[in-house]
Design brief:
- The protein has 5 helices and 4 strands.
- The chain is of the alpha+beta class and about 150 residues long.
- It has 2 domains: about 15-60, no CATH class; about 70-150, ACT domain (Alpha-Beta Plaits, 2-Layer Sandwich), CATH 3.30.70.
- β2 and β3 form a beta hairpin.
Length: about 150
């Protein structure tokens, strides 16, 4: 049987991950913060077997942990208001995000959809915090992360 060299990746919220995967993430964070902590002591501290830790440690990482260029695609549902796109772009720029592409639909029933591709390499907050900041702009109704590339 041939091995599949093409791996699929998924973006998934932490709260739906199995407990052993969540513990693996906490152990990795503890080990990074305290280099003198041994793996043996870390897995014991978080009540996880070493075999479970080794199974997941190289296959799971927080989205915001990567140190390379980060590009995300965001879909924003908005009210049709003059100058709203400008306010959204100002918010992104104030957080050091760099807009790569913008597509705005024609408003239907006073609602429109904006899809923006962003480079967030220099953004100093998490992706969730960035999405929340965009959502706080008046007349923005919904913000969804469509995808990312690292």
């Amino acid at each position: 049987m041939a091995l599949d060299t093409h791996k699929k990746f998924y973006l998934i919220r932490e709260d739906v991950l199995p407990e052993s995967v969540q513990k693996t993430l906490r152990i990795k964070e503890a080990l990074e913060k305290n280099p003198s902590l041994s793996i043996f002591d870390a897995v014991k501290q978080f009540d996880l077997s070493r075999s479970a830790y080794y199974k997941y440690k190289d296959t799971i990482f927080p989205v915001d942990e990567r140190k390379t260029d980060k590009n995300i695609n965001v879909m924003i549902q908005v009210d049709d208001e003059v100058g709203l796109l400008s306010k959204i772009l100002e918010t992104i720029a104030s957080l050091n995000g760099s807009v790569l592409t913008i597509h705005q639909s024609i408003p239907i029933k006073d609602k429109a959809t904006i899809t923006i591709s962003l480079n967030i390499t220099h953004v100093q907050i998490t992706i969730n915090e960035l999405l929340e900041r965009i959502k706080q702009v008046k007349h923005v109704n919904q913000v969804n992360l469509l995808g990312m590339s690292i």
